[in-house]
Amino acid sequence: MVTCGKLVMTPVNGRTVRLTGDLTKCEKEGTPDITKLTYDNGDCEVVIQLGEQVYPRPKSPYKVNIIKPGTVGSRLISYELMVALSTNSSIFVFPFLTGNRKLYMWDTLFVNAFIGTPEHENCICLLYRYSGESQFVKFESALRSFRHFRDQYEPDTYHTMFVFDVPDNAKASYEHYINGRYSEIDDLWKLKILELLDFDIDGQVGKILFQSESLRKELEQKLDVVLPPDSELHDRPNLEKEIFDPEYYALRPKKLR
To answer: In this structure, are 245 and 150 located in the same domain?
Structure first.
């Protein structure tokens, strides 16, 4: 956690830093998407801009690709400084490896999941913030021992990527996901997806997987269309976001002055 005046930056997880404190002195630029925040209380100044890095800890940078206001009702309580939104692959493909959120450090060092990298195709890729702590070293060793482990490499100084083959019993469901046929994912995997992510079957993801009639009607009203009975209720994966882009996530060592 780093402070400047009454402004506080706190790491939330592998993707996000939360900016809190006296936000009344934060000037924002960009409409509708925020591109820049400037804080100046006379004693210190902070400038946060898309594409640049923030340091919630002195040696732990986060790249800011998205700035989202955090609100309760109409009251602004934070700004979420994010390297990326969660990919669809983090929801619909990650669970094909089985396990639980704690095992995969979901709430701490996990950044995102992908279905490929520039070097790897037809796989499941997990991007993590690198840590030199003994717990993470043991975690790395555990992932490398997985039967479907293919490769591990460092796309930059602050990240590590694990690449896995798609398990044989998940290959058909993996293809259904890539083709946007969420309802055709095997029921066993549908339940694993909900279990790993601690989602309810009546939540948004459950409604997508099981083609909920209530979600269909909601989309018909929103889009002012009539959807065929077999229509999928979520967009087909955007491969530009579901295949790892090293430059988008890249963190650079801090320049010495």
So the answer is: yes
Count: domains in the chain: 3
36-58 b/e (C-beta count within 10 Å ≥ 16 → b):
ebebeeeeeebebbbeebbebee
- Does the pLDDT value for residue 190 go beyond 90? yes
Does residue 120 lie within any of the structural domains? yes
pLDDT digits (tens, 9 = 90+) for 133-171: 999 999 999 999 999 999 999 999 999 999 999 999 999
- Residue 103 within any structural domain of the chain: yes
193-243 pLDDT, tens digit per residue, is 999 888 999 999 999 999 999 999 999 999 999 998 889 999 999 988 999
pTM: 0.93
Do residue 157 and residue 179 come from a single domain? no
Residues 8 and 73 in one domain: yes
Q: Identify whether residues 132 and 150 lie together within a single domain.
A: yes
Please tell me whether residues 140 and 245 are part of one structural domain: yes
Are 158 and 176 members of one domain? no
Interatomic CA distance for residues 14 and 106, integer angstroms: 8
| Domain hosting residue 193, numbered range | 169-240
